[in-house]
Amino acid sequence: IILSAANIQHGRSDPQSMVVRSFGKRMTNRRIDIAVRKKEELSEEGEVGLEVELESEDGPYERPSFQAWVHNMKGERLAIVPLEPEVFDQKIRKDILHRNVVYFDNKERGWSHAKTLTRGEIRATTKKQFRQKGLGRARRGTRRAPHHRGGGKAHGPKPRDFTSKLPKKVRKLGNMIAVAARYQEDNLIVIDELSLLEPKTSAAARFMEVWNWDSVLFVTEEEKDRNFELACRNIPNVETTTALRFDVKKALLKEKIVFSLGGLMQLQAQLLQDRVMPLEVRQAMAELSGRRPRSRGSDSGEGDLQSQSM
What we know:
By secondary structure, the chain is α/β, with parallel strands linked by helices. It contains eleven helices and ten strands. Strand 8, helix 7 (226-232) and strand 9 (238-242) form a beta-alpha-beta unit.
């Protein structure tokens, strides 16, 4: 143990206030028991204050409720549908959106088959082109060199995989943030059913004029209307997709996101398939599909297991 110069100058020779130097590191000795007592006192005070705050609150924290109007294709309001708070109550994180866009860009790029021949792969003679000295020209030992015509390519492209990996949870979070951003901008619209009688571009154009839309992404359920998809295919800045094929890049490239009611329910169910959805959202999905919502109890799970085993 070596006393520091500061301790010697102020006359502090108490071992509890010494500075220990070992292996080039400087560590200050403290009274461990006093520090532990202070931490215990602070933790006890914090617990008491927390209890008082909880008692003063109305109840446990609840996420804010989210709702959206359901319209028909003529623009008339029909009803209000509850939205899943865990999907729409998201903080806008540009880093997550950027990672998703890069992931989908790389996925679209996919595998590159471009390939050039190096000087070792060029088929040519190995004969020396002319003698080394006496001609006044630069020496030339091979015709396959990259700086000669017909030679190999230096540092040329090779077949490679441009795809990148992104965790599934990050992709789901990106979809939630994209949908929440459009909802906060009031650029998310819900239509009861996206369907047309005939696959006419003029019919889809009239539908766009009613709503005064220029850039739209239509999200439908998996059992989509083929006529509506064909009608929107020739309109610029308009794209149709399904709930299971929805991604961040498609959402960010368009100004408006228009969901069919079934597509919205399917997207929420996909994003929250590992979580428990609120009862009102499950009831709305059950009414849409014409089925009775299952309870969360263990009895229903046991019944399902028994029926599957039988």
